[in-house]
Amino acid sequence: MDSKMSYQSMLKATTLFGGVQVANILMALLRSKFIALFIGPAGMGIASLLMATLNVVLAITNLGLDRSGVKEIAAYESQSENDQKNILSVLKTLFFISAIIGVLLLLITAPWISVLTFGDNHYASHIRALSLALLFRQLTQSTLTRLQGLRKLRGLAKANVWGNFLALLVTIPLYYYWRIDAIVPAIALSAMISFIVARFVDARDNQPTVFMAPLKAWRQGTEMMRLGLMLSLSSIVTLLVGYGMQLFISGIGGLTQVGLYNAGFLILNTYVGLIFTAMGTDYFPRLSSVGEDLDKTKMIVGNQAEMATLLMLPIIVIFLALAPWIITLLYTAEFEAVVPLVRWGILGMLFKAVSFSLGYVIIARGDSKLFLRTTLFFNAILFTLNALGYYYGGLSGLGLSFLMYYIIHFSSLILIVRWRYALTLSRSLYVLFFFGLILCIVVHMIGSMPSSVLQIALTAILIVITCLFSLYRLNQRIDLVHLLRSKKDQDFDEH
Q1: What is the C-alpha separation between 477 and 207, in angstroms, rounded?
Q2: How far apart (Å, rounded) are the C-alpha atoms in residues 189 and 86?
Q3: What is the C-alpha separation between 237 and 205, in angstroms, rounded?
Q4: The whole model's pTM is what?
Q5: Burial tier of 251 (Cβ tally within 10 Å: 0-12, 13-18, 19+)
């Protein structure tokens, strides 16, 4: 695959064929807006703690199959059809086993989790009810892993969009009528709807996969589970750090502060982070497929890092310039306290654009021990910085600590992949990165000035310059104009 084709493949995967991620973002925005209106910051704090609980139990019980499964399916791409069907059956069976284990664990430990999270066992019944959501989320992930591993990105996109859309239609009335009492039913119904949609899409795109005898699946999936276990341990650590941070904030500032914290990080990790999610759907299996070929790995990683930087720059600049208005639009005026968190934290996204691309190399190489060690190291730094940031600086301190963390993450991964795999980034990428960094710092400084005609004019000019620059560089790499014209002609021919 030449460089231009590589860039085009990444762009198609990132946009998920015709702006599917834009639809997901819009639906996520609507959901957050209505939740903010109907249950407020304190309600969001409760919802965040319940979701954190669910995510921790999922991570503990799924053995990292969502990531190790993608790698295993991609590795069997060149094998016989029977071999691929076999690994798909193994994966489906292991996912089902892990779902049952997760449900039982949540049902049994609900009273203790409630006391740990909320200080009493009042929420034990709510946590037990989450077991239904856990079951459907695990089964949904089984289907999505299959679609991603087979690189059925169009089907993956349909499953995500339609699942999110239908869940949105159902949950908004629930929050309107039941307010805080709607939190658990909304979580469970959303998971159920996503499962139904994913199964429907998969049935249209692929031949059905049969279950395998559990013991046989366990024996054949040993290698996949070994890698998955390491990835699962890293996921658990990451989620526990997030969970612990929410408990820390709740203890100092209460549920309202937890809601504000999650509102800010929802913007950083979900709305802005959807770019990384979209890229990862294609990037990980593509990187896994080249094995230990250093030249191909360098090309894919370099292209991915450049693409991520060019796509992130306009988003970062816009959020830096318009954060107060965007947050009021996304939530309500009650959430304006998260503006400093977002404005400092979003600077870290530029560093993440590169470190994101480098981090996947460790997973793609199956270097599970190194991945676990780096995960423990980075999460220890993240929790320490965030705890200190919040304790001494509140939400603003959290934004600064998030930025500091991604600077450390970026610098460390550059050194790690160079030492471990002799992988280096090109000079042109560094030039692009530091140009973008200077641009973002200037916008941040101007955004901190008192509002005036000059400040507004400078901000508008810099937003336009950034967008035009990103489009120009993307067009250089992939001939964006020609690609769009070809897409338009293809759509016309299909009609």
Answers
A1: 37
A2: 32
A3: 35
A4: 0.77
A5: exposed
pLDDT, block means (10 residues), the chain with 495 residues: 54 52 72 85 88 90 81 66 77 89 94 89 92 94 83 79 90 91 93 93 74 81 78 79 91 89 83 66 76 84 88 90 87 88 92 90 82 89 95 94 95 94 91 94 87 88 93 77 54 44
Give the structural domain span for 152. 3-494
Residue with tokens 């916008």: 443
Asked whether 395 and 336 are in contact (CB, 8 A), the reply is no
Look at the chain and count its residues: 495
DSSP 354-385: HHHHHHHHHHHTT-HHHHHHHHHHHHHHHHHH
Residue where the block lists tokens 């160079």: 418
Cα distances from 316 to residues 332, 457, 464, in angstroms, run 21, 18, 13
The pLDDT score that the predictor gives to residue 235 is 74
The pLDDT assigned to 221 comes to: 78
Q: At residue 254, what are phi and psi to the nearest 5 degrees? A: 90, 175
Residues 6+ apart with CB under 8 A from 313: 350, 436, 439, 440, 466, 469, 470
CA 232 to chain centre: 16
Number of domains in the chain: 1
Interatomic CA distance for residues 359 and 198, integer angstroms: 28
CB 397 within 8 A of CB 260: no
